[in-house]
Amino acid sequence: MLNRRAFSAALLSTVAAPAAIRAQAQTISDFRSQAMGLSQLHAIMVQRGNDILVAEAPRGPGLDRAANIKSCSKSIVALLTGAAISQGAIAGVNATLGSVAPGIIPQDATAGVADLTIEDLVTLRAGLEGTSGGNYGSWVNSGDWVAFALRRPMIARPGQRMIYSTGSTHVLGAALATATGESLLEQARTVLGGPLGIEIPAWTRDPQGFYMGGNEMALTPRAMLRIAVLMRDSGRFEGRQVIPSDWMRASVQPRTRSPYSGLSYGYGWFLSDSGFVIARGYGGQIIAAHPEHALAVAITSDPNVPARSDGHFGQLMDLLEGAALALT
């Protein structure tokens, strides 16, 4: 038999449970309302633990059709880098471009590029003038994207400050393809596609046939969410270690800082002070994970409209740092 104290505790728990459920439902409703108010947002998915709390696509192609993830591609290439190192195709992050893929370096390359390390490239600290922003058009219209990037003037010491450049990640992708003997598409499908059960369609290639490293990959929001879960769970997915745990730990160590958003940057992933690990793409494409709070988030937005830190991207960060964390 229950004594009076135990009976009272049991009674209170039955009263509190519905209240907690109602509070959680209200928190989810508040999150959804805030997200739906963002005019550039196409789709958003949030998973806590094994439960998908939010799956909405008020605009755009929906949750099951591939969307251009833009520069979130850089974070995918970073994961493939870790896999290539674990497989022995590349000796390590200190391996130089000249030792990994000497054949992709043009004869008239900027002095010192052969000594760039894999770490310099994956952290966007190659020191070379960027090919993004105002230089992007001339870069993608050139006859050799790798050579163009490696002929940029050296404007900083390699390994020092972040210079945001899709060209640096494209060089890294070409080096991965050369070292492994597999295209980035093949690597992505083998390393991530199969283990995560996601489809990775072919994307843009350069004039030499290298798949673009750092832009133009396409994934469905559901596939993006699975990558977010992979990041949240230290490289594991459904009990399988997909990306080596030592690479995952190294990836989330701050190596530099974005001069634009102020976010720290590890091996291809942005890092917020609150603990979010973030892939960010033009227009407001986001793959985000918060290991401490068991959160995984996938967001797609209009890929044709900028999402600056003081605009849509800032609003998305407010959503993550505020309403998303409140879900836990």
From TrEMBL:
Beta-lactamase-related domain location: 44-308
Cross-referenced InterPro entries: Beta-lactam-related, Beta-lactam/transpept-like, Diverse_Enzym_Activities
Superkingdom of the source species: Bacteria
One MF term in the entry's GO annotations: hydrolase activity
Signal peptide limits: 1-19
UniProt keywords, alphabetically: Hydrolase, Signal
Protein name: Class C beta-lactamase-related serine hydrolase
